[in-house]
Amino acid sequence: MAHQHPSHPRQHHNPLAEPAHDPAAELALVRSISPRLRSSRDGEIEQELEHELASDGTNTAPSTPPLGPPPDGGREAWLVVAGSFLCIFCIFGLVTGMGQLQAYYLAHQLAGTSKSTVAWLASVQSMMVFGGSVFFGRVFDIRGPRALTVLGVVVTSGALLALAFCKVYYQFLLSHMLFGIGGTFIYSPATGIAGHWFLRRRSTAVGIIMAGGGLGGVIYPILIKELSDRLKFRDAMLIIAAFNFVMMAPACVWMKSRLPPKTPPPWRDLAKPWRDTQYVCLVIGVGFVALNIFTPYFNAPVYAAGNRTNDTVRAWAIVITQTGAFLGRVTGGLLADRFGVWNAWAAMGVSMSITAFALWTGTPIGTVGVVFGLLLYGYTSGAYITLIPASIASISPVSEIGVRMGMNWSAIAVPMLIGPVISGRLIQAQPNGTFTYAGIFVGFTALIGITTSLWPFVWRAIRRVGRPADEERGEGADGGEAASEATLAEEGEKVGEGVRQGGAEAKA
């Protein structure tokens, strides 16, 4: 077989060349997936590749050795996690720490501008970070993370340099938009790459990566406040721009793909995931939660002031919230590995809604109540955000994880744009500018969102009520209702007929 190697000498010298389509290698990759993590879509892909090879008269033996399952650890895998952690630390440190910048803008350059107008800066930036994910998730699946990471580091650093010289509203808006564009280059690779390197400990790896956003949310408000109190705004932002660049630069080397390049699927294939009811409900539910998930982060000082706390609590309200978010992001993956992704995710979503209704709507609740409310909302929302990628990965074919995550983040970009602005109007509508109406809005959208995401599980449970035990066992044997016998966590990881097929292969 040695004579076959010189037949493709040019493919390795042009990085821009279209990667060769190797159905045998792709078939080996699909077959290497653990039966426990397979979905029905993996089975469909396997059948399509087998049909393609059969029609071409090609042997199903791969032209390249199969990669095997993800290593679940090792130096390279943990460096990938470290690089992704640093990227999320820098991007979301500024995205979720925007409340500190908004307070500075309202007191200095944008004094006299309404809060709802200034709120557009944070909303537009958040929307830009998530809005391009459907496209760049596809690029990540095809080409890997390196080029996107390098481009994102350059663009976000340039945006912060531009922000240092802004003086009027439209300049601030353009700079924050540019930062969001740079963030969207990085976000899909940073959150999706753990699936290439981890299998059993995927939730833990994703939790560590997403914890970067929580830690950044603690560090950046402190950094912005201390630097802006001591230095001119321009000098403070130049220091932050340099800090960002230094922190993110290692990711350009450490973040790399384990899987080979593949031919891009046609754009019409983006419609396939939308035939999966569970995925559709997940995205719609996350969209409702996304309307307001960052609203308390941006308005933590308003919440503290409305409850008549002292100046110290008001000044540190954002940091307190972000501290809770950091703890939630760190422990979210651990909870998912212990109790199941969907069990942990559902618990955090419901707890977030209860926290908003119980602690963010009544005034005054005292300093202790405010601090507890800030910490608890930060914790539950941080864990919820962390488990979104793991939840998507648990119900997706491995070859579609990146694009499915990308479509999810793009779909929730518009809700993220309008939610904080509506909440700003609700705050202004109250006589004393308290957070009561906005708190009700936050709790209500979170409750609708998590209920929608869990609806497929609820519907299956409703259908099981009153069924004879022998009927359920019969359906389980046929594979049509295999997921109905599982817990929430098992259903999230064993979807469709993939479980039955995996069991048959294991016996064979």
From TrEMBL:
Main location: membrane
Compositional bias annotation for Basic residues: 1-13
Bias type Basic and acidic residues, positions: 39-54
Membrane topology term: Multi-pass membrane protein
Compartments it resides in: Membrane
Alphabetized Pfam families for the sequence: MFS_1
Extent of Pro residues compositional bias: 63-72
Segments for region (Disordered): 1-25, 38-72, 469-508
PANTHER family referenced in this protein's UniProt entry, alphabetically: MONOCARBOXYLATE TRANSPORTER, RIBOFLAVIN TRANSPORTER MCH5
Protein name: Major facilitator superfamily (MFS) profile domain-containing protein
Organism whose genome encodes this protein: Vanrija albida
